[in-house]
Amino acid sequence: MAEAAIRVSPQPEPEAGVVAAGVYSGGRRILDIRIEESGDWAKKPGHVVWIGLHEPGEELLRRVQRQFGLHELAIEDALHAHQRPKIEQYGDSLFVVARTAQMVEGRIAFGETHLFVGRGYLVSVRHGASASYKSVRLRCEASPKVLSHGEDYMLYAILDFIVDNYMPVVDAIETEVEEIEDRVLATALSQAEIERLYALRRDLLRLRNAVVPLVEVCRRLEHAELVAIDTPMQPLFRDVTDHVRRVQEEIDSLREVLAFAFEASLMTGQAQQTTISRRLAAYAALLAVPTAVAGIYGMNFKHMPELEWQYGYFAVLAFIFATCAVLFARFKKNGWL
Question: Cβ distance 24 to 151 under 8 Å?
Fold first, then answer.
């Protein structure tokens, strides 16, 4: 009767920083609650509290801490929000950090998600660029049978959602990389394109640093090292590990392609410079012939036999044109012109 009375009580007013706070029983959401009620509900057998927070202040996190007895070090990490992906165990509870990523104006924007998991509760804290976990809740609530596994399945669903959201970022970069690869084969890259290439490689490195540590996180969740994860749920995290490794392989492949594109751009630029140098050298050789002849006959010596010859001027011109024609033909044949 007391539980029924709670169900029909007015819904709590929305609170800043709290995206959702609900109680689940048997895989079904039975009601929304206030933060101050969450601890009591989490202690009831067969009930799980799922709280979602977005960039909460310290006061809100402290209230959540008091409800579930969260460790002080984990709260400090959640407040600072500059953590590497990791998993830590504090007694019977877990603290998981995962990095999130989204494409924002052509660059990768990173965020963080902190997950507090314990018997009867899961608290997610989002910071920075991150997709809302509303779709995760709706998908889980549409499958009460799997959601009945409680906080372990909720943890799996969120981690799987985070890893799956890496792929749109990788796909967007892959599309741009393919465009750069096509252009570099046609012509040398411009300065702006080279700067963009460097920016993409730097973003991919940061994304890799965010993705790879999740392999170790999922490995520990998959094996019987953590008492907070039920044994039947551990194999689910192997699927997340496979997704993480696939994302890692895609990132490594893209970084190699970008490296090859940069090298190809350098080689193309060097080839163009070599071609230009050859052409300049060929034209310089063609100009050297008339310049040399004109220099000889411009020395103004009095006793030069050719100066008195009637056909000397025409002979010199014929010599110049013939020599230049031979040089031009040789340069053309050798591909210098």
Answer: no
Q: How confident is the model over 279-330, as pLDDT tens digits?
A: 888 778 778 878 887 777 777 666 676 667 777 777 778 887 888 888 788 8
| Lookup: tokens for 85 | 């992906």
Whole-number Cα distances in Å, 243 to 239, 240, 255, 332: 6, 5, 19, 57
Residue 221 to residue 231: CA distance in whole angstroms: 10
pLDDT of residue 159: 93
Q: What span, in angstroms and rounded, lies between the C-alpha atoms of 255 and 266? A: 17
Domain 277-333 has CATH 1.20.58: yes
CATH number assigned to the domain covering 1-146? 3.30.460.20
Any idea where the domains of the chain sit in the sequence? 1-146, 277-333
Q: What is the pTM of this model?
A: 0.75
Question: Contact 143/27 with Cβ under 8 angstroms?
Answer: yes
